[in-house]
Design a protein that fits this description.
single chain, 573 residues, alpha+beta, 8-stranded mixed beta sheet, 6-stranded antiparallel beta sheet, 17 helices, 32% helix, globular, binds flavin-adenine dinucleotide
Length: 573
């Protein structure tokens, strides 16, 4: 054993980053008999994965089949190929489809991670062949963190918008039930509140719910599974470069609490250190302009592209560097990351307009498409960065928008004092609102007149909002004839400013079917693997369904571990 200051620095496998993909990889690598170390740059583990919805998109999964669902490998392949439009090698898509159901089956059987299938969560591109109205997205069950204890204090904390009333854990299925006002939603909320309030022991300790939900549940259950196996996870340990021996990656250099260390990896290094969305220099180099780090909904300062730059130095090929997992976001004072508007755009009675006061896209469309549309419209008109979400007092009373809870729970009088004219703008008339936010008043008036007509007929003649099952998923089922359309007529009127933000970058180091990083020749760089947003997405330019970033991150983490172990067996012969 060679050590530096009594620190073990030789491992079979080193995993960089502690998001869901990285921790999944660590679990499989350890279960296959490898000694494993996980290093994390931040003082908190979990990365964006911990603050996310935690959903994973697993076509052809066992749970859906057990419920009588109808999916197949071929249908899913047809769908992903149609969605990604040739931007990814088919063999990588096949590797995903081959391994994703196996990964989640084995992970659930052997670890603390537990998911339930979201039968009603539709794929995002309902117009494409092979899409399903539900059953491919899976949602983490609530996870009791009692056993994890104080270690939970070191987990990236859940963002307010993934908790019920900013405090209580819930599953995505429960959140959807409340948003869509499905039968029994009120009773369910009361039950969740009682469970939280009556947990006297935990309430004495503080506000944090004993149970974790969404991405918090996924990451806590993975962390607990690492603890069960005694897999070391070093926080405050930043990867800075690779160690190369005979053209092969044999280790990494890190800065650990100010000290430079060399760590040796006998069989492989798996880079799961996220993308580069928190690096303004790289944003300006690769992403469409304008682009701001502060528009990203990911944890501040975490994912700054160290793996990308170190990989490029080694001659690694890259792809999709001009793409993010786009999401319209807004900024809230005192919050370090932006907030994504995922569901609210579909609620009836809110529209998104540009500086001309015009709608330019279906507001209920998936967030990646909406962010992309903001850029495309901006390139044409110069007027949609920022854009504005506009709604009336009825909407304000009934529905949430970003940090603004429905007025019936959080009236304007109880909103933090810093929010008026930073988070939302308010005026008695539409004309007054247009002047306040400096957009074209006649344009907005015309847009609202049209929308009010569409709300009556139920047909959005311009963008077909509410015209498919995905749009309607977040609509209000009690609103007729179209759950995504309602008139905007009763003042005061409100506007909120949104930008084309992101929930991570989508491009990165190019990998093959085994998650190995490749050179432009296609040859792998021996010993080096990349997963999650460190790698160029297997979904190409598309976002086929909820969980299409974490599903592949975990699956390619599994694939990397399997490949390392198989290679190790071959070299030992
Ligand atoms: P991360 O989870 O961000 O992990 C990367 C880790 O690497 C970080 O902890 C970082 O600190 C660490 N790191 C970075 N650089 C270094 C270095 N030099 N040395 C050591 N460590 C380093 N996706 C889904 O699929 N389903 C969802 O439901 C979903 N919901 C979302 C909701 C929100 C609000 C947000 C913001 C995102 C959501 N996403 C979702 C997107 C998803 O969370 C990310 O795409 C995913 O977490 C990326 O995983 P990753 O492992 O690549 O990066």
């Amino acid at each position: 054993m060679s050590t530096t200051n009594n620190i073990e620095n030789n491992y079979d496998v080193i995993i960089v980053g502690s998001g869901a993909g990285a921790m999944t990889s660590a679990i499989f690598a350890a279960d296959q008999g490898n000694s494993v170390l996980v290093v994390e740059k931040s003082d908190k583990y979990g990365g964006t994965s911990a603050i996310s919805g935690g959903g994973i998109w697993i076509p052809n999964n066992d749970e859906f089949r057990a419920l009588g669902g109808n999916d197949s490998y071929e249908t899913a392949l047809t769908y992903i190929k149609a969605a990604s439009e040739g931007s990814v090698e088919e063999s990588r898509i096949r590797a995903y489809l081959d391994n994703a159901p196996k990964m989640i089956r084995e992970l659930q059987a052997n670890s603390r991670v537990k998911f339930a299938v979201a039968e009603k969560y539709p794929d995002y591109y309902q117009h494409l062949e092979g899409s399903l109205p539900g059953g491919r997205s899976m949602d983490p069950e609530l996870f009791d963190t009692t056993e994890l204890g104080d270690e939970m204090d070191h987990q990236q904390p859940a963002s307010g918008n993934t908790l019920l009333m900013g405090r209580m854990a819930w599953t995505a299925r429960q959140a959807h039930k409340a948003v869509a006002k499905d039968r029994g939603w009120m009773l369910m909320i009361i039950g969740l509140m009682l469970r939280y309030k009556l947990d006297f022991k935990q309430r004495k300790k503080g506000r944090r719910d004993r149970r974790a939900g969404l991405g918090g549940s996924l990451v806590a259950s993975l962390r607990q599974s690492l603890c069960d196996r005694n897999i070391p996870l070093w926080r405050n340990t930043e990867f800075t470069d690779f160690v190369i021996t005979d053209d092969k990656v044999t280790g990494i250099k890190v800065l650990r609490e100010g000290q430079e260390l060399t760590l040796n990896a006998r069989h492989g290094v798996v880079m799961g250190s996220g993308g580069f969305e928190q690096n303004q220099r790289l944003r300006e180099k690769y992403l469409p302009a304008p682009s701001q780090q502060s528009w990203s909904a990911t944890p501040k300062g975490c994912n700054t592209g160290a793996a990308l730059e170190a990989g490029q130095k080694l001659g690694a090929a890259t792809a999709l560097l001009d793409w993010c997992w786009w999401a319209p976001t807004l900024n809230v004072p005192k919050e370090t990351s932006a907030r994504g508007l995922f569901a609210e755009r579909a609620f009836p009675g809110a529209i998104v307009v540009d500086g001309l006061g015009k709608r330019f896209f279906n507001e209920a469309a998936p967030y990646l498409e909406f962010g992309d549309a903001m850029y495309r419209n901006h390139q044409k008109t110069g007027n949609s960065i920022p854009s504005w979400v506009v709604f009336d007092s009825h909407f304000r009373h009934e529905y949430a928008m970003g940090p603004l809870m429905p007025g019936k729970i959080m009236p304007d009088s109880r909103v933090p004092k810093t929010w008026p004219e930073s988070v939302y703008w308010k005026a008695d008339t539409l004309d007054g609102l247009s002047k306040l936010i400096n957009i074209d008043a006649a344009g907005l008036a015309e847009t609202v007149t049209k929308m009010n007509r569409y709300a009556k007929t139920g047909i959005d003649e311009e963008f077909q909002r509410g015209g498919n099952v995905f749009d309607r998923y977040y609509g209000d089922s009690s609103v007729k004839p179209n759950p995504c359309l309602a008139p905007i007529k009763k003042g005061p009127f409100y506007a909120m400013k949104i930008n084309p933000g992101d929930i991570g970058t989508k491009g990165g180091l190019l990998t093959n079917d085994f998650a190995q990083v490749v050179r432009s020749s296609g040859d792998p760089i021996e010993g080096l693997y990349a997963i999650g947003n460190t790698s160029a997405s297997v979904m190409g330019t598309s976002y086929p369904g909820a969980g299409a970033t974490l599903g592949p991150a975990m699956t390619f983490g599994y694939i990397a571990a399997n490949h390392i172990t198989a290679n190790r067996a071959t070299t030992a012969k």
